[in-house]
Design goal:
Oligomer: single chain
Number of domains: 2
Strand content: 25-35%
Helix content: under 10%
Length: 223
């Protein structure tokens, strides 16, 4: 079972992102000028007939230099984790739990703004006589209005980041992926999942795992 930083990311595990990927600059007929430096992402250099100049470095992810008739140069590197977010993962590791019970129906509710950490990942409808191999989860998230930002460890214990836009509809939750660092191809992905919300918790009812047939419910607790 893959680590779901956010079901989204099994999505989720809620919870792909282009923030660390270089993007091409625009082309032009004159020689490209160098990108300016700054504390954020490096800006792209303008293009020229002999090739675009490289983007300047910054504390965020570097953006590539523009392309020219002879090909653009590579983007500059940055020291940050990209534009998804700059959260620190303060959560403690959580192990998979398994239950033979049927998964509960989502109840919906109002999702409170704040900082959350993952406190439970319970797999329902599991064969508890021979449960699937467990996974360690570690997720910290912030919610502000409709924006969800998270930092989590993937199945290889590599830190990943994600930014989502949340839209509730009854007891269901639409998650539009605007940025994630683990899979560029899934940027823009839309997940529809059940959820429960109280003033202190946020639970995501993930899709049934196609390998194990279990139904995971991920619990985040407000700090």
């Amino acid at each position: 079972m893959t680590n779901a930083g956010f079901g989204l990311v099994c999505l989720l595990g809620l919870m792909g992102c282009g923030s660390t990927e270089a993007h091409s600059g625009a082309s032009g007929s004159d020689a490209g000028a160098s990108g300016v430096s700054g504390s954020g992402a490096g800006a792209s250099g303008a293009s020229g007939s002999s090739g675009g100049a490289s983007g300047a470095s910054g504390s965020g992810a570097g953006v590539s230099g523009a392309s020219g008739s002879s090909g653009g140069s590579a983007g500059a590197s940055g020291s940050g984790a990209g534009s998804c977010n700059a959260l620190v993962n303060i959560a403690r590791p959580v192990q998979d739990e398994f239950s033979a019970d049927l998964a509960p129906a989502p109840t919906g509710g109002t999702i409170a703004d704040g900082t959350y950490v993952e406190t439970s990942f319970l797999n329902y409808e599991a064969d508890t006589n021979s449960p699937p191999a467990g996974t360690t989860h570690k997720l910290t998230a912030t919610i502000s209005g409709t924006t969800f930002q998270g930092v989590y460890l993937d199945a290889q214990s590599v830190e990943q980041r994600i930014t989502l836009q949340l839209v509730t509809n009854g007891t269901m939750l639409e998650e539009h992926v605007s940025c994630r660092t683990d899979s560029l191809s899934q940027t823009g992905q839309l997940n529809t999942l059940g959820y429960d919300a109280t003033p202190s918790t946020f639970k995501i009812h993930l899709l049934q795992d196609t390998d194990t047939n279990v139904v995971p419910v991920q619990t985040l607790t407000k700090q």
